[in-house]
TrEMBL record:
Coiled coil: none annotated. It holds the Pfam family GATase. NCBIfam families: trpG_papA. One of its GO terms (cellular component) is cytoplasm. One of its GO terms (biological process) is folic acid biosynthetic process. The gene is ABZ1. It catalyses: chorismate + L-glutamine = 4-amino-4-deoxychorismate + L-glutamate. InterPro entries: ADC_synthase, Anth_synth_I-like, Anth_synth_I_N, Chorismate_C, Class_I_gatase-like, GATASE, TrpG/PapA_dom. This is aminodeoxychorismate synthase. CDD domains: GATase1_Anthranilate_Synthase. Pathway: Cofactor biosynthesis; tetrahydrofolate biosynthesis; 4-aminobenzoate from chorismate: step 1/2. Residues 21-246 form the Glutamine amidotransferase domain.
Amino acid sequence: MPASSRSSSAVADGRELPRTLLVDNYDSYTFNLLQLLTQKAKQHYGIEDADNDFVRQKLMVIRNDQYPWHVVRDRILPHVDCIVISPGPGSPDRQADFGVCTELIRNAEQAKPVLGVCLGHQGIALAFGARIRRCATPVHGQLCPIEILSDDTGRPGLFDGIESGFRAVRYHSLTVSDDGFPHHELQVLARAAGSIHAFSEHCGRFQVPTNEIMALKHRDRPLYGVQFHPESICSEYGARIIDNFVAITHDYARRSDFVAHNSGYASRIPPEIAAMSLLALDDRTWHCDPSSPPPLSQSSLPGGCGRFALVAESVDLAIPGGMDAAELGDQLQALLYGNDAMPLWLDSAKSDTPGGAVSIMASGCGTATVRYQLSGRQVSVVAFGADDGGCGPESIYSARLPDRDALGNPVSFWTWMQDVYDQTLISPSDAQSLRFQCGWIGYFAYEMKNECVGMATNCEAFGSHAGVQQEPGQRMPDAQLTFVDRCVVLELGREPPRATVLALAAHGECRRAAPAHSWLASLGFGSRSLAATWVREQSCKIRAWLAGPRPAGTHVSAHPLGESSEQMLRLRPVLSRDEYLDAIGRAKQQILQGESYEICLTNQFRATLSDSQAIKTSTQMRRHYINMRRRNPAPYGALLWYSDIAAGIASCSPERFLSIEQCGPDDRRVEMKPIKGTTRRRPRPAIGPCSEHTHGDHSAVCAECLRQWEIDDSRRASELEMDVKERAENLMIVDLVRHDLNSVSNGNPESIPRGVYSGAIGYLSAHGAADFSVVIRTAVVDHCGTRVSVGAGGALTTLSDPKAEWAEVETKLYTIAPSLSPTLPV
Ligand SMILES: C=C(O[C@@H]1C=C(C(=O)O)C=C[C@H]1O)C(=O)O
Ligand SMILES: NC(=O)CC[C@H](N)C(=O)O
């Protein structure tokens, strides 16, 4: 039965789910609470699949400052039955942190059941005279037993059916004080038990007992607070607590004359009110202007018929003896693009990549690259000539993005690019079973997050004084995406490995030019036969190479970045060790004040290259990349070179940012796979004789050395796995990613301007899939080939030991620039 046809008193008799207002205090976990509430709704009505319309009739989400209090009170509150107040940064006594939540709690006339989580819980306590103080030991991402105190009222309670001692995750620096607690108005329902981990620079890690207030309720009004996070992935009984809150709401509705007083009471939120919810915004139009009404969507996904059609041919590759899969990728890329002026290579140099290693080889020559500069909102499209014609650039489009489109919708680079991307989709009937099928290859710099959530670039936080800002003009664009209309995709995970040559031809029936982006009409192969010819030529080249004699070994000599004598790159930290340690101190201070759960602090290491050292060509850049890749083969390798600005990226990232897989016409799988916790590994023993174990074979690894190395390696792995700080960091990032996937991705919670480092590199395939890595372990060349920058950093919590954090930065740097930290112990 649709929710709308239920009887108006259904809430009171328990058959109907209450309509819930979730107030977001700008927290990283709010959408995990929404997920709990949505799951409850789906279970209740037996709805399996996401039904957004249904959810929007039952749940609405607003930001704490989205509407003035009188609007919330007069327009929204009459249409909801209960309120959930989210966690959040800061303190509930600050209007800027808590917004309308204070009034929502105090509002006695229109009293509705309230569940406050963490900041929300603290806000309830504060409203009735309790004091909020700093915790003696802040707790972020630790599981803690919760002791339930008796609450025997004979009516539904928040912890009904839950055993005392259940374990829940805590993320807080502030707490409700026992000193001066207003026992006449509020009742403590639960306390922390056991002990938690702490860190001090004098004592290192240690454990302290904990017994802070973990839950409370108002004695007369239906106001409940929990200090822990029921929505965390590791909390027990999260769903049960929500069930109990629903039962409390039903009970309240039954006992009060609430239903009678709400004439016209209906079981769903009316559409005009639901339109005020954040859920009414979709990801195309997600923006950060809380005062304006939700914009209209103008989705323009093409129906079935794409502008381009795909032509493809596959070649099975027998791996030549003595060559591993990664080397095969290197050689094939050298064969096809080794002398290319603008190589674009997304390279799985490690065959255990989730989903099977795939290398994508393409060029920016003979096609167009979209560039975006955040400052000035400038989009430009540059077309490059074919490689043999010198690959000369020509500007074919340039515009400042308007703030709004003709319909009044906000315009961002994302909405602009979405329109362009939609016009390059291929017909589903053309799609192959390949992860990349032509499309767009490039990167988004870290600051592109400002383009989605409207955050100001936070240059001040931790170290702009030390020169973190960059000079305009010379630096890399904030985003570059090259339209790849021809490429070779190498699937290394297959047996035998397979290379597929792909090209986009103009689609016969759908040739009309799109008015907004007529420049797209000039791209791709004009006809299927031209595309087919190119595909054939490339396949023949690969077959001939397989059949013919190949040069032994690889074709480039080793000059590891920063290590070679000819190419002595003196990378210098932007923040010195002492400055970085200070910045760690300031970051930890922010966490102690309740402003953040976890901060990913980063530093940059830079070298200015003299004219003779400058990296001016793709060949030079390729050499650096190959050396990095040899030292540190990674699932997400990348080599991108932009010849006209002599700028490029060499990346050996181990970390997936986000992938979208097309599983069926309406079935897409989204994955984020963050890494937290990094440790140094000893190098794997090399092939050859070993003096220690009288192993003299030149063609094998010493078995004893290998055995010892394996033991050492798994010891390091399990130490990392069991470490309480690393586990907390992981838990936090998992909860954060769940929140992001439940809403829209809002970037990671880090805060220094970083450029390409910490951004994302990857592809948007023409069949609707995407895969992006997190840009770490990466060298960026800009300033016309005269500057190299490498970023490195790590996640910080209150358990972080500053010196260990600096060592972690050195470890990360060492993987790509070994000369910097030659004294590091192995
Ligand atoms: C910031 C970096 O890494 C981030 C932090 C990590 C950590 O704390 O272990 C691991 C991977 C990254 O998401 C970096 O490597 O520079
Ligand atoms: N998770 C939260 O809501 C945290 C609340 C508050 N900022 C604190 O640190 O205690």
